[in-house]
Amino acid sequence: MVKRLLAWVSILLFAVFSLYPIVYVISVSLRGDNAFQTQSLEIVGPNSTLKNFVSLFTETDFLLWLKNSLIISGVTTFAGVALASCSAYALSRYRFRGRNMMLFSLLTTQMFPATMLMLPFFIILSQLHLIDSFWGLFIIYSSTALPFCIWQMKAYYDTIPRELEEAALLDGCSRWMIFTKIILPVSSPALVITALFSFMSSWSEYVIAAVVLQDPQLYTLPLGLRSFQASLATQWGLYAAGALIVSIPVLILFISISRYLVSGLTMGSVKG
Amino acid sequence: MRYYLFLLITLCSMAAHAEKLRIHVWHQMIYGHRQVLAEVLKEFEKQNPDITVQATYRETEELRSGYQSAAMGGSGPELVYGPSDQIGPFATMGIIRPLDEVLGVDYFKQFDPLAAPTFNGKHFAIGDAVGNHLMLIYNKKLLPVPPKNSDELIEMGKKATIDKNGDGRVDQWGLVFNYTEPFFFAPFIPAFGDDFIKDDVKPNLNTPALANTFQFILDMRDKYKIIPKECDYETANALFKDNKAAMLINGDWSWGDYKEAKVDFGIARIPMISGTGKWPASLVGTKGYSLNVNMKSPQHQEAAVKLLMYLTSTPVQLQFAEKVGILPSNLDARDSDIVKNNPLLKISADIMEVGHPMPIVPEVRAIWDSLRIQYQKVLAGSLTPQAGAQGAQVLAEKQIAEMNEVLKPDAGAYVLKAIFALVILGGIWMSRKSLVAFVKGFQGPNRFAYYMMLPAFIGIFAVIVYPFFYNIAISFSNFSLRTFQDWSLVGFTHYVNAFSDPKFYSLFLKTVIWTVVNVFFHVTLGVFLAVIINQVMPFQGFWRALLIIPWAVPQYITALTWRAMFNQEYGPINIVLQKFLHLSPIQWLSQPTTAFAACIITNVWLGFPFMMIVALGGLQSISHSLYEAARLDGATSWQRFRHITWPLLMPVMVPAALLGSIWTFNNLNVIWLVSNSGEPGDQTHILVSYVYKAAFNLYRYGYAAAVSVIIFLILVIWGLGMLKSQYQKETK
Fold first, then answer.
1. Contact B241/B258 with Cβ under 8 angstroms?
2. What is the pLDDT of residues B244-254, one digit of tens each?
3. Which DSSP helix (H) or strand (E) runs through B412?
4. If DSSP codes are grouped into helix, strand and coil, which group holds residue B409?
5. 3-class secondary structure, B280
6. Residue B584 pLDDT > 70, yes or no?
């Protein structure tokens, strides 16, 4: 009984811990003009207003940023899932020269401080005339998330019994058909996770986008939000309102697939 | 035929018309100014129908680094607008053009000399306004007359610092300002007797004047208690706007804000220092337009120059003066009634009289940085004012030397080139069989696998592997401020420097602590919560979704939110500590240990959901029969955890923890955003944030690349070791 009570207390504590910052952002976004500074802990104070949300949509280019972000994240997610699922399948099912080397080098790509790749990125992209174009971002975003996604997918494929494919091979299926008709459908938890990671890496990325996209017509949500923060006078209300709206799609995504998340992230390592 | 010709000509002219010249301007104007800019640009486009102007806002630091990389890549905006102190670095790098060639020498005579600064004898920018200087702004309701000297400042400050309801908390402050930032503190230094920069370039920091200034601020904070213990720009601004501060030190850019908040304010010089009889000298600068060296065509250049002349012309400046109250740089504009009849601008001009021009040489950046580091250490109590002043001089000289260093290729360069050649040849020789096998693989039985992998690996190669090798090359080069355009391989110097610097080892130690503490909490909290959710809680899905939230919110939003929550005065964390736990408030962000702790708390918040999900997955794959059997054998719950859960969870948690450690080790976002790039005094850095600062703030690209290669090697060696020991355990 005592144990049960302790469990409840600690889970409630952590629920507060994980929710509070969000509540705080909500409360800031609801405050009127002057700002995030108040010494009360009220979430919805007497002066609360939805003004910030209204002006976010009417006075800023928020909808444009939203559209750009959706395009970029959509393409990145699609490309990321396609690339990761194919190459991970090869790494899982085939034994060939350099396979271990490849797996290890995928892991090592995570070890280099990513910010230092900025300078070379920029030089390469400007030589290819990909500055101020979504193509540059498509390429960078879908590739940077790849190493983790490939590892993830491979671990999952490893748990799928080979017998499934062998039967189909005997029936005369091509390898490509086996992959698309048998393997992909049973890998949905892992595919969902790969999609999630690809999506997240582009949805909230800021540093690279800031360099690649120079035309405000092409701004993504993080870039747009950042423009509310002048060096010395941040429009906290607008920023908070925008931050909330940026987080909501990811939140919904996470919550709706949290079931897949559990099996997708761990299946491989448990049985593999 | 004629008809077709006509059509052709019309089409051509339409096409020509459709192809308007597009001129880009990057600027860092604050919100109110941006609106005026938009208006005047609209007017310009009306006057010049063949030109469209694209104005892009960038935050000051970002404008600087973004412009640097853009110009280096041969592109970038035609015009760049910013404070005069960016002229020095940009001109040194050779990425902005001397304006004398395009505008003629006499053009500059129409401006206030402050607005047309020269660097190496040439003009690189024209300012559209003069000012940017600090002054004392006072709330007339709380303080009818401003103090004239520092004694009065302290007296009046004491009177205006009030705890209204007697709860031990000050409700109204005598003076507020962003005093941890050297820019806001610099005006006092000359008032105590000595400038902090000599001959425009040399740091002059080891002076009694600097030590006394340190002491003066400390006294205001600790002895007279008229300024808050912790006060950043936002806090000072908010207190003043809420009528909770009698006096404020801020610049001319802030007036609009206070007018809008309906504060009845007056402005005055920062009070004279009574002991010396000298006035604090604010740094007076200009913000202006510079011309990119890279132009797409002569037409672009012509249009950009036209735009530049328009934006600095009298009517445009007057429009700015009228709407946002800036002091025009154009001498004609300054004579107009709009300026003359504006009381604020008049006082402002008077304050500027005791001001000093803002130095624009690149070295200033190193001086500011050293000053900031030492000053914040003094404020945190880890250095005495004297030691702080002494240390600032040493540090500034060191940083200037590093920044200006142009390494010459030494013997190492030849060794290096030889090694590179050998590695490449050796690599080809060693892998020749693999290469052949690889090429043949496209026809062999495994060709399906090859085609499946090819697209992903092309992507990874282009985006990660190639830039990575590029970086290795930079790490052996002299790429820095003075060799921005043409760098060359020089040898091992950066590596030798990195390893012989004691700072490297202390940073490494701190990074290890950061990683271990974070990953420890991530894993233990993750497993703890997973066990509870899995065994005790009803509605598992609900709790799981609830606790996943921190993971779902984009990191940069999280980090800034937590920074606001740690605010000493307004952050909910301190308010809870005081109101409910009756503890004294913690100065989270101005003490090195608490600031580091704040970063860790933020990162723990960010990271535990991932581990929890992984642990949940692991737990759910453990068969229930094991627990039932154990229960039958009479095992306690601890024994069940110790002998069933833990060992079966290990294979899941170890790889996750491994990956988690790598991510944490390289996590720049949290440290950078929560501690505001390493504050206080550069004492919250971990290796990656230190690298970032060296590269993008201090122009030491080569050195930064070398340290990042070292970070990589550390992680690879450690990762290999972990994998190996794990492998051995599994095969036992």
1. yes
2. 999 999 988 88
3. helix B411-430
4. coil
5. coil
6. yes
Q: What is the pLDDT of residue A234?
A: 66
Asked if the bond preceding B147 is cis, omega within 30° of 0, the reply is: no
- Beta-carbon separation of A24 and B544 below 8 A: no
Which region, left, alpha or beta, applies to residue B262 given φ > 0 means left and ψ of -120 to 50 means alpha? left
Any chain A CB within 8 A of the CB of B294?
no
Contacts of B87 (CB under 8 A, 6+ apart): B96, B117, B119, B124, B125, B290, B360
Query: Is the CB of residue A154 less than 8 Å from the CB of residue A88?
Result: yes
Judged by a CB distance cut-off of 8 A, whether residue B552 touches chain A is yes
B48-84 burial code (b ≥16 CB/10 A, e <16)? beebebbbbbbbeebbbbbbbbbbbbebbbbbbbbbb
**Token couple for B347:** 């006082």
Measure CB to CB from residue A263 to each of B468, B543, B617 and give the nearest one: B617
Chain B within 8 Å of A262 (Cβ-Cβ)?
yes
- For residue A146, the chain B residues in CB contact (below 8 A) are 456, 459-460
Give the mean pLDDT of B666-670.
89
Nearest to A211 among B66, B453, B466 (CB): B66
Query: Between chains, do A259 and B541 touch, taking CB under 8 Å as contact?
Result: yes
- Residue type, position B142, single letter: L
At residue B714, the pLDDT reads: 93
Can you tell me the distance from the alpha carbon of B343 to that of B335, in angstroms, rounded to the nearest whole number?
14
Say whether residue A118 is in contact with chain B using an 8 A CB cutoff: yes
List chain B residues with CB under 8 Å of A261. Answer: 548, 613
B585 DSSP 8-state letter: P
Q: How confident is the model at residue B68 (pLDDT cuts 50, 70, 90)?
A: confident
Q: Nearest 5 degrees, angle CA B352-CA B355-CA B358?
A: 110
Q: Count Cβ–Cβ pairs < 8 Å, chain A vs chain B.
A: 341
Contacts of B551 in chain A (CB under 8 A): 254
Contact in structure between B331 and B110 (CB atoms under 8 Å) = yes
Asked whether the beta carbons of B567 and B228 are under 8 A apart, the reply is no
Identify all chain A residues contacting B242, using CB atoms and an 8 Å cutoff: 34, 37
CA distance A120 to chain B (A): 5
Written as one letter, the residue type at A40 is S
pTM reported for the whole predicted model: 0.85
DSSP state of A182: I
Question: CA distances (Å), B622 to each of A219, B619, B669, in order?
Answer: 47, 5, 36
Residue B461 DSSP code: I
Please identify which residue in the block is written with the tokens 């690279």: A208
Best interface-test mutation with A: which of B483, B494, B543, B561 has the largest number of A CBs within 10 A? B561
Do residues B81 and B41 touch, judged by C-beta distance below 8 A? no
Q: Answer whether A106 touches B (CB < 8 Å).
A: yes
What's the token pair of residue B712?
């990589």
Closest Cβ opposite residue A231 in set B60, B663, B668: B60
Count CA atoms within 13 Å of residue B653 on its CB side: 22
Q: Touching check for A59 and chain B: CB below 8 Å?
A: no
Q: Pick the residue of B556, B577, B601, B685 with the most A CBs within 10 A to test the interface with A by mutation.
A: B556
Is pLDDT above 60 for A231? no
**Residue B272 carries which side chain, given as an amino acid letter?**
M
The answer to whether residue B550 neighbours chain A at the CB level (below 8 Å) is yes
CA distance B457 to A150: 11
Interface contact B438-A215, CB threshold 8 A: no
Is residue B92's pLDDT more than 60?
yes
pLDDT for position B580 = 84
- Spatial distance between the Cα atoms of B263 and B236, rounded to a whole number of angstroms: 14
Residues constituting chain B: 732
Q: Give the nearest partner residue to B456 out of A20, A83, A233, using CB atoms.
A: A83
Q: What is the mean pLDDT of residues B152-159?
A: 94
